[in-house]
Amino acid sequence: MFDTMTLTKIVGGFCGAFLLFLLGSWTAQIVYGAYGYHEHEEQAYSIAVEGGEDEPEEEAVPFEEIFASADPAAGERVYGRCRACHMLEDGANGTGPHLYGVVNRDIGAVDGFSYSGALSEVAEVWTPENLDGFLENPRGWAPGTSMGFAGLARPQERADLIAYLETIGGS
């Protein structure tokens, strides 16, 4: 079945394929400038960007002020993003725990839901401030959390959502 010539052809085929791969890699490095081939060259054209380092940063409005003017009706619309994983009915867990009475509820207190454990290491109670931090960046606020949501960037949306959740189940 196998003679020396067949084995030689197979080994030669693998060596040839490997050489082609190395040649392609070397060509790509030259063509696309990978590995710093152009790091010492001056940029040919620079695009002016508005709002450089000279402008002072806007001072952030404290969450308490934003939360004081929060609109629960607007928060109900924001809740639409949460609806895929969280239910509002008491005891009705989805992919995530139910949000009935979540404001000022102990973290990890929903019976029948298996938490990742990262949340209880950060805080003990879902205060509006803790919810704000978590909703802004869940994985940044509680590293290791199993919540896959990217977060809500706008503080007003977070405040509106928390105000809406405060009306669900009371606190």
Q: What is the CATH topology of the domain at 63-167? A: Cytochrome Bc1 Complex, Chain D, domain 2
CATH superfamily of the domain at 63-167: Cytochrome c-like domain
| Oligomeric grouping of the chains | single chain
Secondary structure class reads mainly alpha
Strands, total number = 0
Topology pattern, helix = H, strand = E: HHHHHHH
CATH class of the domain at 63-167: Mainly Alpha
Q: Architecture of the domain at 63-167, according to CATH?
A: Orthogonal Bundle
- Provide a count of the helices: 7
The span between the termini is 80 Å
- Let me know the average pLDDT: 84
- Our Rg estimate from Cα atoms comes to 28 Å
The percentage helix is 40-55%
Shape: elongated
Largest sheet: none
Low-confidence residue ranges? none
Approximate strand percentage: under 5%
Task: Describe this structure as you would to a colleague.
The chain has 7 helices and no strands. It has about 170 residues and is mostly helical. It has a domain at about 65-165: Cytochrome c-like domain (Cytochrome Bc1 Complex, Chain D, domain 2). The longest helix is centred in the N-terminal third of the chain and has 29 residues, at about 5-30. The chain is elongated, with a radius of gyration of 28 Å.
